[in-house]
UniProtKB/TrEMBL annotation:
GO BP terms in the entry: lysine biosynthetic process via aminoadipic acid
Protein name: homocitrate synthase
Record-listed E.C. numbers: 2.3.3.14
Keywords from the named record: Amino-acid biosynthesis, Lysine biosynthesis, Magnesium, Manganese, Metal-binding, Transferase
Family of the protein in this entry: Belongs to the alpha-IPM synthase/homocitrate synthase family. Homocitrate synthase LYS20/LYS21 subfamily.
Length: 460
């Protein structure tokens, strides 16, 4: 570019807003200052397949503690003798995370719970007319009186206490806010909002939490079911509106199809503030925690799971692959290495492109000219029109192609052969080979259909 055409140097990126331009919404937001209440050992135990013996509960609690969640919520000790014993056992582990147990807002339950050694109680009672009529049969006046009584009792024991209204989004708003005002005045540490049936959308969540933020001075916890697919978005909207605590479970397990998943919430919050999330959670442990829980409840980690799904960092189409190899930010919002994962570029299919194939050639140490890479890419596409090839089949094809290209070069001009081979090795810095955490993606490729005769013959 001629000197006269030079652009002025770019202004430094603006990282802080001028105070007068900070919006009220930004001041409310807790997306950079929130806590996770991990409820795999409470809500997760309500998942249809869940049965956690003591040893498993302890392993899960330790893993979550190591990951860095701020709270671990346990099943009510009133549920069974073993639940009581397990609650006590987990309290004795000396974990960094605070241990909570989840009980009905009733003195009988609270009296048992405060003796277990927990750091706090999560009290709950249904406030929607449906639950008042068909679950516990109590009216709002009774609920209010009971709530204050139980809160005072728990506080008198020096424990943290949260009060939550089950089915908040189908409860009367005036009833709800009056109740929360009363419990806030009674000195509750947190109030909870629960979308028990998964009916809420992010806008409703934002409105309710923001309104509540103006009514109570205590912390606000939110619990979102995923029946209509909004559990993560709702959690994010709640934090934007000033909620301070979000309930999660590993892989989202819980009643019906569950709640906000721990991994999904991490992915979302990392996108909002990578350093903050990486600073407080050991993200590379997610995969092991999910595998531990999946194995215990006899499910597979879903293919499209946030972060750890087998194809979460697999890139396929040629246009994507080229750009990814030049700069991964082009098609990745999450950096796989931040989660102990590995990127994988899949090439044995008809959507592949020569840039991706060239990259694989370089990985294999096989030098070809760009024109030759384009030729072998055409061969891959032709074969992959019959069925996709796995990585070993692609490698076989590339090696065969390379050997015959080399032989041809030597035949034509023996002294120039090695020059050709070296000329295309200029892309080494951008390589991405299948590696241990990409093995799921590689194995999936291998397990596809057996080779039809014409494909196998070409590779033989
Ligand atoms: C939305 C949620 O996930 S809330 C959390 C759900 N968790 C659990 O249910 C924990 C596991 N539950 C259990 O082990 C049992 O249900 C128990 C021990 C809590 C109660 O068992 P049971 O006494 O046999 O009652 P059952 O489960 O049939 O019915 C629930 C009882 O709790 C009462 N109840 C429900 N919510 C509340 C509440 N917040 N405060 C007081 N009582 C309540 C109901 O009225 C009903 O009592 P009743 O029929 O004896 O009058
Ligand atoms: O205690 C809470 O806030 C939530 C209880 C619960 O699991 C629900 O309402 O779905
Ligand atoms: Zn729930």
């Amino acid at each position: 570019m001629a000197p006269s055409q030079k652009q002025p140097p770019a202004a430094p990126a603006q990282t802080h807003r001028v105070p007068s331009l900070v919006k009220y919404e930004d001041l409310l937001s807790r997306t950079r200052d929130f806590s996770i209440i991990e409820s795999t050992l409470r809500e997760g135990e309500q998942f249809s397949n869940a049965f956690f013996d003591t040893e498993t509960k302890i392993a899960i609690a330790k893993a979550l503690d190591d990951f860095g969640v701020e709270y671990i919520e346990l099943t009510s000790p009133v549920a069974s003798e073993q639940s009581l014993a397990d609650c006590k056992a987990i309290c004795q582990l000396g974990l960094k995370a605070k241990i909570l147990t989840h009980v009905r807002c009733h003195m009988d339950d609270a009296k048992i719970a405060v003796e277990t050694g927990v750091d706090g109680l999560d009290l709950v009672i249904g406030t929607s007319s449906l639950l008042r009529e068909f679950s516990h049969g109590k009216d709002m006046a009774y609920i209010e009186k009971q709530a204050v009584e139980v809160i005072n009792f728990v506080k008198s024991k020096g424990l943290e206490v949260r009060f939550s209204s089950e089915d908040s989004f189908r409860s009367d708003l005036v009833d709800l806010l009056s109740l929360y005002r009363v419990v806030d005045k009674a000195g509750v540490d947190r109030v909870g909002i629960a979308d028990t049936v998964g009916c809420a959308d992010p806008r409703q969540v934002y409105d309710l939490v923001r309104t509540l933020r103006g009514v109570v001075s205590c912390d606000i916890e939110c619990h979102f079911h995923n029946d209509t697919g909004c559990a993560i978005a709702n959690a994010y909207a709640a934090l934007e509106a000033g909620a301070t605590h979000i309930d999660t479970s590993v892989l989202g397990i819980g009643e019906r199809n569950g709640i906000t998943p721990l991994g999904g919430l991490c992915a979302r919050m990392y996108t909002a503030d990578r350093e903050y999330v990486m600073g407080k959670y050991k993200l590379a442990k997610l995969r092991d925690i999910e595998n531990l829980v999946a194995e215990n409840v006899q499910i597979q980690v879903p293919f499209n799971n946030y972060i750890t799904g087998y194809c979460a960092f697999t890139h396929k189409a040629g246009i994507h692959a080229k750009a990814i190899l030049n700069n991964p930010s082009t098609y990745e919002i999450l950096k796989p290495e931040d989660f102990g994962m590995t990127r994988y570029v899949s090439i044995g299919h008809r959507l592949t492109g020569w840039n991706a194939v060239k990259n694989r050639m370089v990985q294999l140490g096989l030098g070809l000219t760009d024109a030759e890479v384009k030729q072998v890419t055409a061969q891959i596409k032709e074969m992959a029109d019959i069925r996709p090839l796995n990585i070993e089949e692609v490698d076989t094809l590339l090696r065969k192609f390379h050997a015959s290209a080399e032989a041809e070069r030597i035949r034509l001009s023996p002294s120039d052969a090695s020059l050709h081979a070296r000329s295309s090795n200029d892309n080494e810095g951008t390589l991405t080979a299948p590696s241990p955490t990409a093995t799921d993606a590689v194995n999936a490729e291998k397990s596809r259909l057996p080779a039809p005769a014409d494909v196998s013959a070409a590779l033989a």
